[in-house]
Specification:
Largest sheet: 7 strands, mixed
Strand content: 15-25%
Shape: globular
Number of helices: 12
Bound molecules: flavin-adenine dinucleotide
Structural class: alpha/beta
Radius of gyration: 24 Å
Number of strands: 22
Length: about 475
């Protein structure tokens, strides 16, 4: 069956970028069609990304707390996690959210078409599903088709469809639950899933080709996490590449090319490939619309989310780094507003990053690594959580809060936090940077006691030299 439809605005892809753009445009009076190839809305984030992974990480935290209770004299015995029930919890969480999106699309009069879309011209896409082909024409389109996991190259692994080779999507299924799991890639996604599998009883090994976990984050922020997981995991190999993956009947043999601490090879029961994601710009027949896609698959945009074709916008993972849901949704609003004739723009000065590991690691704005690389002058205040009453009451002392300041103005340039709930705490720093706050603004803000949020005020006090919750010897006056 073939059909034709017309719309003011088409949104291609219903992830956090796409559904936000579609809903905002509908609220601004546009007739919107949202096209999605999967049966539910919400994209990678809701279906196979942020939400299911955080549901599993919640289970991992509860299991860790049961373990920690042992140290407090409460022995609940060894937990017996049931992957099927845990998976159901994650799936139910996801379906509550995706069901809500479907409902809100209906309430706003956004027409949803399920099928795979590709451009047929700058003003039309062809949408195919198993029953029909629909040609949808439009005045404007917002491309929000996201990204996909990068598989291991065929030179390392010939047969990638073996169920023991996991990616970030299949790993959420917790099936199989391997005794020995290798995680290739020590970035955020790899380490979050490592946290889950470790809690559920797998012996986890992580291999990372760079010299630290979570490359791109300051080393001092990652250190408490690295220390904790070093004690828990089977092994962590840094500066190491995987040079071959051999699928044998009884196990998987992996060869490593690393430094003297890394063995030449080791055996595993499953391998999770978490080596990054690539944008889907190469899958949309963009050439038929004259739409520029770069060599990596990204669709370049300006700060109004416009591509090289005036009526085509691109948002989210498909237009560039960082590939994060909150970047996608904010860009979605900008694109919808610009499409509706508003003078909106996207300022990406502060996009926070969070690893929901245990402990969590979060950072925003300028990092020390970037400051050093680009010779940017900075001063810093660091507050160790070993001196935080709240942190100690949680049985945790390894965290830290670090704030970078502009030396002349004392304005906040960047913030990094490692410790439980760092992902929630970082928001205060993000707001401070957005508002152009300085050290005094943070230090003089009365934070509730005892909370982890106090550590932000304390880090500013360390910088100012007014801290009383630590003793920092003064330099003698010259
Ligand atoms: P997507 O969410 O990828 O949505 C794109 C949609 O387009 C998909 O639904 C896809 O089916 C559809 N589509 C693609 N091509 C077509 C086509 N041709 N026709 C029709 N439909 C099409 N980010 C965070 O900020 N916080 C987190 O905690 C976090 N955790 C993550 C955990 C995991 C395991 C993963 C994999 C990712 C995580 N991310 C996280 C990243 C986050 O999921 C993405 O940045 C976000 O989903 C990007 O949104 P998007 O709208 O650009 O694209």
């Amino acid at each position: 069956m073939s059909d034709t439809k017309r719309s003011d605005l088409v949104v291609l892809g219903a992830g956090p970028g796409g559904y936000t753009a579609a809903f905002r445009a509908a609220d601004l009076g546009k007739k919107v069609t949202l096209i999605e190839r999967y049966p539910t809305l919400g994209g990678v984030c809701l279906n196979v990304g942020c939400i299911p992974s955080k549901a599993l990480l919640h289970v991992a935290r509860v299991l860790a707390e049961i373990e920690e209770l042992g140290e407090l004299g409460i022995d609940l015995g060894k937990p017996k996690p049931d992957p099927k029930t845990i998976r159901q919890f994650s799936e139910q969480t996801v379906s509550k959210l995706t069901g809500g999106l479907q409902q809100m699309a209906k309430q706003r009069g956004v027409e949803v078409i399920h099928g795979t879309a590709g451009f047929s011209s700058p003003h039309s896409v062809t949408v195919k599903n198993k029953d029909s082909t629909t040609e949808v024409s439009f005045d404007q389109i917002i491309v929000a088709a996201g990204s996909r996991p990068i598989p291991l190259p065929a030179s390392l692994l010939e047969q990638s469809d073996d169920p023991r080779i996991l990616d970030s999507t299949s790993a959420l299924q917790l099936n199989p639950m391997p005794k020995r799991l290798l995680v290739i890639g020590g970035g955020i996604i790899g380490l979050e899933m490592a946290t889950v599998y470790d809690a559920l009883g797998s012996d986890v090994t992580v291999v990372e080709m760079q010299d630290q976990l979570i490359p791109g984050c300051d080393a001092d922020l990652v250190r408490p996490l690295a220390k904790r997981i070093k004690d828990r995991y089977q092994a962590i190999y840094l500066n190491t590449r995987v040079s071959a993956v051999k699928l044998l009947k009884s196990h998987i043999e992996v060869r490593f090319d690393g430094d003297s601490k890394t063995p030449d090879q080791a055996e595993f029961d499953a391998v999770l490939v978490a080596i990054g994601r690539r944008p889907n710009g190469d899958l949309l027949a963009c050439d038929k619309a004259g739409l520029r896609v770069d060599e990596r698959g990204f669709i370049p945009v300006d700060d109004q989310m416009r591509t090289n074709v005036p009526n085509i916008f691109a948002i989210g993972d498909i237009n560039g780094q960082p590939m994060l849901a909150h970047k996608a949704s904010h860009e979605g609003k900008v694109a919808a507003e610009v499409a509706a004739g508003h003078k909106s723009g996207f300022e990406d000065r502060v996009i926070p990053s969070v690893a929901y590991t245990d402990p969590e690691v979060a950072w925003a704005g300028l990092t020390e690594t970037e400051a050093k690389q680009n010779s940017i002058a900075y001063a810093k205040g660091v507050f160790p959580w070993a001196a935080s009453g709240r942190s100690l009451t949680l049985g945790r002392s390894e965290g830290l809060t670090k704030i970078l300041f502009e030396p002349d103005t004392q304005r906040i340039l960047g913030i990094g936090i490692c410790g439980p709930h760092a992902g929630d705490l970082i928001a205060e720093g993000v707001l401070a940077i957005e508002m152009g706050a300085d050290a005094g603004d943070l230090a003089l803000t009365i934070h509730p006691h005892p909370t982890l949020s106090e550590t932000i005020g304390f880090a500013a006090e360390v910088f100012e030299g007014t801290i009383t919750d630590l003793y920092i010897p003064r330099k003698k006056a010259q």
